[in-house]
Design a protein that fits this description.
Four copies of one chain form a homotetramer.
Chain A (H helix, E strand, L loop, with lengths): L3 E4 L14 H17 L4 H6 L2 E2 L2 E9 L8 E11 L4 E9 L2 E10 L2 E2 L13 H14 L1
Antiparallel strand pairs in A: 1-4, 2-7, 3-6, 4-5, 5-6
């Protein structure tokens, strides 16, 4: 699958002259949405039927090298783990083939009323099977 | 009525070392919501009953002096005009008593379905009367 | 010249479910930088030699239709006027060929110390001549 | 020491109706700068003499409960560890006395040229001693 690319914008820099660190968290999100869209799962379709997948955690976020406006960032997204309730994603960001960022996000699945959803044969079967497949592939 | 104050944050600066210009548009919003709250009209109460007041225009935005992290910005909000359909607000921002920014925003009132609402005796009477009072005061 | 495209991101939406209005101001900037880059003038090259072109004003900003995450926004940039001291840019944003936004930004040229620069035969001649050419074209 | 408070803004929400998760990372920064300022160390004074303390990592970020516009968030900041090269900070965020967020950030100290600084008797002695004192206090 083709990786995602983000062009760093002027408004994403701060007075240190480099990308403000909060923006990498936003790029994780845009790359994740793109990753699932390329697999055939449009996150907005899920929200339209009242299913949300909020970020419940961020782990091992490492800012290794700075970036700035004009840089094109390649973002490599992978499923790290999945157990029907919690999905963990892993991200590597590169600038000219050098890793500048690594990190992980954790997600659950909830209904509009906040009730937790367990994916499986009854609920979102095709996404469930794809996530199982993606985690097995990594083993 | 007491003016609103915003403390400029590090993440609001850009690589020029000053506040990115898009943030003043955000501060207009936070000062406007505060202005109406102090008058007894909590914007969130309106949204909770399905009434929204989106920004339809920005006019005469003037960036006169820069600001940066650590600065405390005083924001003076006024109603510029109101005609039941369109509300125009005016903003002055000061840093240590010097005007650094001036601008205006225009707003309409809509229902969740996008249908335009005309304020008046039947619709949001108390807000309608307050807005009339505030525009008369300015004459 | 090819227009610029921006894909609306989830983090650009607000609780109204649509793009927060401050983001269009940011997209004006990214489309403007792209516009000059395609003409051969990389804004970052100017900043690297200590020349900045801050936004001094925004005019006639009109939010005509909402957009949201997943939308692809086409941004058409033009030079509206130029007189060696002030550059005015005009922007039209379209979603599926419908105009959703229009607006203008004004810019001056300054040195790192804040001193105003007048473009011309002595200063940034090639940019000066290109800007003259672009404003004549519009007449 | 008095804790820091952040009032959630409309522009910080997303289409899920709650604060976008990237903003908590920004609030960590504003609360951290406030924490050191209250201790007598203004981060901007350090930057003015060419010393920067970038975020090199984020760990154990936990989004426990959502927040939204109108909420007032109390942010409790502590020094988690310090070894002259790396400073780790810990954050708890509360809404009406309920913990809604917890997380950690790691920082190094660098000069404008990117060279790493080791704090100590020769370099920034008073900050060094304060950080030692703060980590001992936690033991």
């Amino acid at each position: 699958m083709e990786n995602y690319y983000h062009n760093v914008q002027y408004y994403e820099t701060d007075k240190m002259g480099v990308t403000h660190h909060s923006n990498y968290i936003r790029w994780m999100e845009e790359a994740r949405i793109d990753f699932f869209k390329k697999l055939g799962f449009d996150y907005l379709d899920f929200e339209n039927v009242g299913v949300f997948s909020p970020v419940v955690g961020l782990n091992n976020i490492r800012y290794k090298k700075p970036s700035t406006v004009g840089d094109c960032i390649e973002i490599i997204v992978n499923v790290k783990s999945y157990n029907r309730l919690i999905l963990e994603m892993h991200y590597i960001m590169k600038k000219e083939n050098t890793i500048i960022f690594e990190g992980e996000s954790s997600h659950c699945f909830i209904k509009e009323n906040g009730k937790i959803i367990k994916l499986g044969d009854e609920n979102f079967k095709s996404l469930h099977e794809k996530l199982l497949e993606l985690t097995n592939k990594d083993e």
